[in-house]
Design brief:
The complex is a heterodimer. Chain A is of the alpha/beta class. Chain A has eleven helices and eight strands. Chain A has an eight-stranded parallel β-barrel with strand order 1-2-3-4-5-6-7-8, surrounded by five helices. The two termini of chain A are 12 Å apart. In chain B, helix 2 packs across helix 3. The two termini of chain B are 20 Å apart. The chains are: A alpha/beta, B mainly alpha. Chains A and B meet through helix 5 and helix 6 of A and helix 4 and strand 1 of B.
C-alpha cells in the first residue's frame, strides 16, 4: 500500500527519514531501506540535509524504490532555481518517484559550504504551487505545456514547525501550504506534546485535517551530546526542560534506551490527538531505533494497531 | 541578485502611519497620470527611482526588488529575509523570534505578524505570493504599482483550477 493509499484509508501511517551518505554509493541507503521495510510505510530521503553535500535525494529515492520501499523525495529551495526544480519533478515522476516533500531548506551558512550562493528563487509555498500546477494543469510556471504531465499519483508534502514564532500564525501558514497544494505535512520534532496539541486545535479549526494528512515528527534522542547539538545547533528544534532533565537523569549508557522510550510515549500521545494521521520518525543516522519506538507504541510489525 | 545581501531590517515607520500612507498612495487616476508622465521621460524616471531607493532603503531596508509586498506584510520587507521568503516565516525562527541566520536580528515575519495583527490585519499574511520576477530588480515599485503591473503579485486563494499564472509567462 502506498503512503497515499494508507493515508486515504484512514489508518495510522508511519514514515521515517534516511540521510544519504557523503560518498558515491547508494549501498548505505539500500541497507537502511531493507532494515526499515515492513516497519514504515515510506522513507524520506533528505536533500543535502543541514546544507551539507550528500548523495542527491533523487538518486537515494531510486535506491529506496529498488529496495522495495516507497521513497519520499525531499526537495529544498536552497540550491536550485525554478528551472531546475521543475525539471527535477519531471525526472522524478518519470522514474517512478511519487511522494515529494517540499521545504524551504536550511541556509547554506549552517553547512559544509557556508560560502555557497543561497538560491531561494522560489519559497516552499511557491514550489508546492508550481508542482501542483504542473501535475494538475500540465503546464510549467512559464505557461508552456507539458507532454505528458507528471503522474496524477504525485503526492505533495510540506513541513511545518508548530513551535516556532509567531506561534499564532503557524496553523495559518500550514493553511497556505494546503491551499498551494500540500496533501500531507510532516512536522518538526514534537517534544512538547501540549504545545503540539494547541497547534492541532487551530489546525482543526481551519479544517485542514480533511484536506491534508498531518504526520507528527518524533525523534529518538541517542545521547546527551546529540540532544545538546539539537538544542543549540539545529534551527527550529525546541526541547523543553522536562525532556532535558528526564534524559539527563539516567546513566549515560541508558540514554539511548530512554530516548526510545520517550519517543514511543510521544507517538502514543500524538496518536490520541484528533486529526493526527500518522507519525514521521526523525531518526536519520539512528534508524535502528525504529523497531523499538514502534513496538513501544504498539505499532510494531504484526500489530493490528495499524 | 543585487549587491546588497538580504538582511532583516525593522522599519523606521510606525505601522499606523504606514497604513494611513497606504490609503493615500493607492492607485487612482491621479497617480496613474503622474506615473505615466514620470515614465515617459528617461531622466525623470531615473530621478524618481533614485529617490524611491533612498527613501525606502532608509525606512524599510529596501533592496529594490521592484515588486513591493509591504502593503500586505505590516510594512516589514520580506526581501530582508536571508531566504527572501515571500510566504514566510521559515521553521528556523528562534524561540525569542530571532532570525536563524542573523541571531542578533529579529525575523522579519515575526515583526510583520506583530505589526499587522496590532492593526487587525493579520489575515494579510495568509495571502499567497506568486514567485518574484527577477527581471524587476532595480525598478521603481511605486511606478509599477500605480501602472497596475503589481496586480497579480498575490492572491487570496487558488480556486478550483489552482492555476499559477507565472511572472515568467
Amino acid at each position: 500500500m502506498s503512503l497515499r493509499e494508507r493515508l486515504a484509508s484512514g489508518s495510522f501511517a508511519v514514515t521515517a527519514e534516511i540521510s544519504p551518505p557523503r560518498g558515491a554509493s547508494t549501498d548505505p541507503i539500500t541497507k537502511t531501506a531493507t532494515l526499515l521495510r515492513g516497519w514504515v510505510d515510506a522513507v524520506n530521503v533528505t536533500d543535502n540535509q543541514g546544507s551539507n553535500v550528500r548523495l542527491a535525494s533523487w538518486a537515494g529515492s531510486l535506491a529506496v524504490l529498488a529496495a522495495g520501499l516507497e521513497p519520499v523525495m525531499q526537495m529544498t529551495c536552497r540550491d536550485r532555481n525554478r528551472i531546475a526544480l521543475q525539471s527535477d519533478l519531471l525526472g522524478a515522476s518519470a522514474l517512478g518517484i511519487r511522494s515529494i516533500l517540499v521545504m524551504t531548506g536550511d541556509h547554506p551558512k549552517f553547512g559544509d559550504h557556508p560560502g555557497a550562493k543561497p538560491v531561494f528563487d522560489l519559497d516552499s509555498v511557491q514550489l508546492l504551487w508550481t508542482l501542483r500546477t504542473m501535475r494538475d494543469q500540465a503546464v510549467l510556471l512559464s505557461g508552456r505545456t507539458l507532454d505528458p504531465a507528471p503522474s496524477a499519483g504525485c503526492f505533495l508534502g510540506a513541513v511545518e514547525n508548530p513551535f516556532a514564532p509567531p506561534v499564532e500564525f503557524r496553523a495559518d501558514r500550514l493553511g497556505k501550504k494546503v491551499e498551494a497544494g500540500a496533501q500531507f505535512v510532516q512536522t518538526q520534532f514534537v517534544f512538547d506534546v501540549p504545545a503540539f496539541g494547541r497547534w492541532m486545535a487551530q489546525v482543526r479549526d481551519l479544517g485542514l485535517p480533511e484536506r491534508c494528512a498531518i504526520l507528527a515528527g518524533v525523534g529518538a534522542v541517542r545521547s546527551l551530546r546529540a540532544l545538546d547539538y539539537m538544542r543549540e545547533k539545529v534551527p527550529g528544534v525546541y526541547v523543553p526542560d522536562e525532556v532535558y532533565r528526564r534524559l539527563r537523569a539516567v546513566p549515560a549508557d541508558r540514554t539511548a534506551a530512554e530516548g526510545v522510550r520517550l519517543a514511543a510515549e510521544i507517538v502514543e500521545q500524538v496518536r490520541g490527538i484528533p486529526g493526527v494521521a500518522g507519525v514521521h520518525l526523525l531518526v536519520a543516522g539512528n534508524e535502528q531505533a525504529v523497531p523499538g519506538i514502534l513496538d513501544g507504541a504498539g505499532l510494531g510489525v504484526g500489530n493490528d494497531g495499524r | 541578485m543585487t549587491a546588497r545581501p538580504p538582511i532583516p531590517a525593522h522599519p523606521h515607520l510606525g505601522v499606523r502611519v504606514a497604513y494611513r500612507l497606504q490609503r493615500a498612495l493607492r492607485p487612482n487616476a491621479g497617480w496613474r497620470w503622474f506615473s505615466a508622465i514620470v515614465e515617459a521621460s528617461g531622466p525623470a524616471r531615473a530621478a524618481f527611482t533614485g529617490a524611491e531607493r533612498l527613501v525606502k532603503a532608509e525606512v524599510f531596508g529596501c533592496r529594490m526588488c521592484g515588486q513591493c509586498a509591504l502593503p500586505v506584510t505590516g510594512y516589514v520587507c520580506p526581501m530582508g529575509c536571508p531566504k527572501e521568503l515571500r510566504n514566510g516565516p521559515c521553521g528556523g525562527v528562534g524561540p525569542d523570534g530571532s532570525c536563524e541566520v542573523y541571531p542578533a536580528l529579529r525575523c522579519v515575519w515575526v515583526d510583520a505578524y506583530e505589526r499587522a495583527a496590532s492593526q487587525g490585519r493579520a489575515a494579510d499574511l495568509r495571502l499567497l505570493h506568486r514567485p518574484a520576477d527577477n527581471r524587476r530588480w532595480g525598478q521603481s515599485s511605486w511606478l509599477n504599482y500605480w501602472q497596475g503591473r503589481d496586480e497579480g503579485l498575490w492572491t487570496s486563494g487558488l480556486g478550483e483550477a489552482g492555476e499559477l499564472p507565472g511572472a515568467d509567462s
